[in-house]
Design brief:
With 339 residues, the chain is an all-alpha fold. 80% of the residues lie in helices and 0% in strands.
Length: 339
Amino acid sequence: MFKRKIKLVMLLICIGMFVLLIKETGPSLIASRVYDVGAGFLILILISGCRHLLRTTAWLYSIERQERRVRFRDLFAIRIAGDAITDLTFLGPLLGETVKGITLSRHVAAEHSASSVVVENLAYTFAVGLLVVTGLVLFLLEYPLPSSVLAGTLITMGILLLSGALIGLAVKKRYQVAGRILDRLQRLNLSWVERFRDKREKIVQFEENVYGFWHAHKAASVWILFLEIMSVLVGIIEAWVILYLTAHRTSLFAAFMVETVNRIVNLFFAFVPMRIGVDEGGAALVLKTIGYGAAEGVSLAIIRKIRMLFWVTVGLVIVSRYSISSKKDGNKDHPVVAA
């Protein structure tokens, strides 16, 4: 209950920030920027669609070859549906990625379904970390920053580098992190830990599947990382196009910085539905710093939200179809017998 209240308060703060940014920037100015995009929204949908295709392909290759019994279009649909849940809920990727794994388990063995989701997300996290660290280094070299902002930037870089090093070490040495944590918790005789006692072997096997994939499929791992890096670059292209259509001037550096901040926002505010308020604030801050107006940043984030709403709508339609399909399958398995 307390956590729900905290999340609700944070959401209200973010909504307040969103409203304030629009008021300060000027609703009419933002509306004109959105209007300037016009038919360009089709281009943005195609660009973001390419990103989904790249990540779906990476996900497909994250499934063990002998387990790839899922069609690409079904995997694409599962991804869109999971992302819609991620974007709309407080639990964000925790719920969205779980839904992806559970839905994929209709086509693939459950243990391989879960491990493929983790493998793909680890590769994507590496690609995003590479983008963010590179972007922050370029920003530090190009612009003098106040001491507080500089400290925050260096802390963010430190967290990313340390996290990447720890994850890389765990994969290389095959440390059974979840299994060891579970063992130590059981020694504390905590009542809620008992429910996981019977699942320990499955948890350990799941970790081994994730680590084993990277060691056994090195060529596929490189290909997956390449696809994830390309999906990140697609985000930079999208930012470049939006700036071109709205500000009528653009640069790869500006697009790179916008995407860097966007990834940082997604990392630290994943629990905020659609990153409302924080996305606009981050984009406005970075663009204002590098010589654009705050209006360009707020407009860019709102335009991205309109594009996001398109894919969220598609995702919700897919979720409803899966729900209807599940009910039909349930009725077949448990036919109603007339009295």
